[in-house]
């Protein structure tokens, strides 16, 4: 009999940030977040508990709940909003509302659509929250980043850390270890994504600080992870090869439009590829 | 044989503002509007006639037409826009276009969806009209409201009057009589909605003038009326008990974002509850 | 066996601007564009090639591809954006992205919907591109138009030329010839659309320069062409008679809201009529 096991669902919720389902991997992700900023582990633990509790009240499928499917969007939201918003009662209220929203979007998505949401529930919830807070002139945290240069190893490690919205080489090492343990066959592609996106960003963009932070890197890594877990995309090596460049272009486009991209570039890229495949299916009149 | 009877459909259109279908109740609602502002009865009579005429040209079901289903959104729009817009040829044109829009949205909704629209056609049409008029810098009526305090009986009566967008104790008494005649079993819950929303708004908000006007009250009353007419929600007393608090929070959220909420808080609340119930239905894999 | 013939598909793509499918008519449309501004033929030839190539890579139905269905939106986009955007590497990149977007939207539309897209893929792509460029403060070309008066023959010819976004009497003559050759039974209605829209705009609007340019005219012509090709609308002469007035009102509405309308007024009018017809279909309960 399947019961709602909250420790298991919490750990898996963190593992699902990297689209893995394994409690030990989840622990490593939590470790990576603590290494970056302990307060962010606290905020994401709170949103994950609220999300899993909400999902439980909605009487969703217990197996899915335990696998972390209902929690990882809230985890991302808990980290991302705690980075951008100052600590205040409104921020805490917003985290709670946002966490509940991710669950409702996820539950509706699983009922209505036959393709995976990836981190769409997180992106939609975060954008709605940020739009609402902008409308009432709520203050956002400001980040002043300047850098005279960047080094590839640091950019790559920061970029891997950014998968969990961290910016810290130790976090990068821990998440890299987690991904290698979980998907050792993909190690080459993960490194390719991290290296090629950083180098391509350097050609395209002049802002060394952003490259150093891994800003252009984490969407490429997430895209590779998702593409490699899709049997149809996995076979097309040229798609895997080119995906980091597309992610950098999309990240740069969001930057140019002054929109906080979060993981939207990778989600957009994967959906574009899925739409193109859907259109290429043999047509009745073709 | 069912014929298009314009007096009957007009009266029912006004009764449907409170989600009732009874010509005498419709007359009481019209009386409540006259007691508040005679000009608003004129504008809403015009929009209702245009709406029912449009619906008739679209050859909709005569029974629905006579029951006021195609007219109440136009009645709300006729009142709400006449409050916010100065009297001018453009305003009159906008009322006509808006009334036609409510009918087209309603007719499409009834064809495509299996759940009730409540006042969504009115909300969507009004927001589109207001967005378009804002884009051309059309002047809106300004309301300066200041108040050093509020009293519960006045806030409750104004709040009941606000169901038809009036702000006047006599209108409140007339609409209360109409609702009691039509749904005498619900009287307790209606009063609970009015009283609890006013008191909760006082704890949450510092603006006494808005509470006195019944601004936080009418969505709670509409929500109670709709929830009580749904067999599944009616059984859950704690839902009825809590709904006024949710309406106040949603009204405050719209206020904070500087959006004219109209009846959107109550519609959002009811749809959220319907979505949650839809998600809680036994899942195939559960 | 049907093969992808690029000359044929290119010519048909231009003919489809006027919703015709005939290679000679396509040649006349290209001639009309050269007569107006040779650079615009170049830009639209590029976008059409990109669009048809993209469609070909998506392995769409060859017959549709050859008939120009996948190319005319890109042709319109190539002309319209080259008019509004300064020549620069970013503009060229935007033309390429826009052309690919029109094909993806068109392919999705044909898979998902059972009604024609007309020029919706072009309108949606152009608005998205313009919104994105506005967000990054990209400069748009400015047009200063002043005129002390307007003459009907020039307004009519310019208006016909505007079907391909030209503003030039010779282009107007060529497109008129093309339309007369292709649809000689419609000549009377085409002229009615051009003349009545210009005269009605003169009553409604004070800006003689816009009328002289044919700004209020081309949507009326496109609407007549589409309505005449629909067996159900063709029978209703009063609909054909009134459609130019509706197009002028819609064009003026977009102007008032400061939105570049492109062909949106005609598309909105046709969809409104289709929705009304859909709603008027015998209802199960009626």
TrEMBL record, chains A, B, C:
Record keywords: Cell membrane, Membrane, Transmembrane, Transmembrane helix
Protein name: Urea transporter
Annotated localization: Cell membrane
Family named by the database record: Belongs to the urea transporter family.
Transmembrane segments: 25-51, 63-84, 90-110, 211-230, 237-254, 260-279
InterPro entries for the chain: Ammonium/urea_transptr (IPR029020), Urea_transporter (IPR004937)
Stored Gene3D superfamilies: Ammonium transporter AmtB like domains (1.10.3430.10)
UniProt membrane topology term: Multi-pass membrane protein
GO cellular component: plasma membrane
GO MF entries: urea transmembrane transporter activity
């Amino acid at each position: 009999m399947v019961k709602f096991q909250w420790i298991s669902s919490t750990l898996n919720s963190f593992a699902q940030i990297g689209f893995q389902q394994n409690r030990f991997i989840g622990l490593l992700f939590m470790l990576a977040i603590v290494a970056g900023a302990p307060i962010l582990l606290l905020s994401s633990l709170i949103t994950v508990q609220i999300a899993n509790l909400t999902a439980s009240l909605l009487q969703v499928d217990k197996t899915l709940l335990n696998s972390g499917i209902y929690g990882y969007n809230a985890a991302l939201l808990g980290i991302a909003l705690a980075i951008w918003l100052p600590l205040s009662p409104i921020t805490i209220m917003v985290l709670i509302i946002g966490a509940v929203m991710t669950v409702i979007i996820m539950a509706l998505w699983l009922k209505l659509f036959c393709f995976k949401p990836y981190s769409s529930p997180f992106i939609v919830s975060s954008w709605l929250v940020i739009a609402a807070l902008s409308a009432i002139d709520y203050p956002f945290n400001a980040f002043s980043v300047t850098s005279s240069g960047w080094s590839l190893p640091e950019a790559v490690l920061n970029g891997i850390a950014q998968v969990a919205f961290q910016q810290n080489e130790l976090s990068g090492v821990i998440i890299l270890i987690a991904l290698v343990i979980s998907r050792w066959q993909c190690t080459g592609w993960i490194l390719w994504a991290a290296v090629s996106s950083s180098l391509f960003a350097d050609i395209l963009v002049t802002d060394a600080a952003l490259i150093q932070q891994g800003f252009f890197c984490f969407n490429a890594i997430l895209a590779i992870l998702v593409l490699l877990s899709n049997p149809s995309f996995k076979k097309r090596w040229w798609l895997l090869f080119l995906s980091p460049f597309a992610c950098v272009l999309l990240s740069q486009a969001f930057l140019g439009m002054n929109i906080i991209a979060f993981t939207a570039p990778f989600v957009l890229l994967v959906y574009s590829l899925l739409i193109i495949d859907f259109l290429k299916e043999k047509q009745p009149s073709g």
